[in-house]
């Protein structure tokens, strides 16, 4: 499927309430666009519309060659449900997802902490005035409830970027680590924040 056909298929999907010709699902470009649209609307705060795209993938991409995209759709749909506190209630909606992968997400097997939502830092006003890029590396623990705590700075290109980085890190959301069937505190983990004046997406939340 070429680019124009992909766009037309997406438009038809939107207009028809997420029903398109089955052969479109065999095209990698179409599946990529579905996932991109879901992530785009998630970042825009239109969570309900975002989940419709991911649910479309979960319910339609069942062939072996579609498995990689199916797993991405499963992960993102689970995260959407989790953030709304509906992941247990809506587990039947994820029945098409690989069981071994869902066991990890639902914490039925031991796992490391899994990031599910990260926020970019806000560019400091001074950095904009000075036309200055930079970075900060932070270290932190993830609690048994998936919250970030004990944030510390490992390295920073300039002090002006530190406050914004710590604030962003504290808003991260994780699936907590699981050990012997129990959620546990884990870490320390590290994250590098890059401040780039050309990047307009610093303040978007990301799945």
From TrEMBL:
Signal peptide: 1-21
Gene3D superfamilies: 3.30.1150.10
Keyword Lipoprotein: no
A Gene Ontology BP annotation from the UniProt entry: transmembrane transport
Superkingdom of the organism of origin: Bacteria
Domain TonB C-terminal: 108-204
Keyword match Signal: yes
Keyword terms, alphabetized: Signal
Name of this chain's protein: TonB-like protein
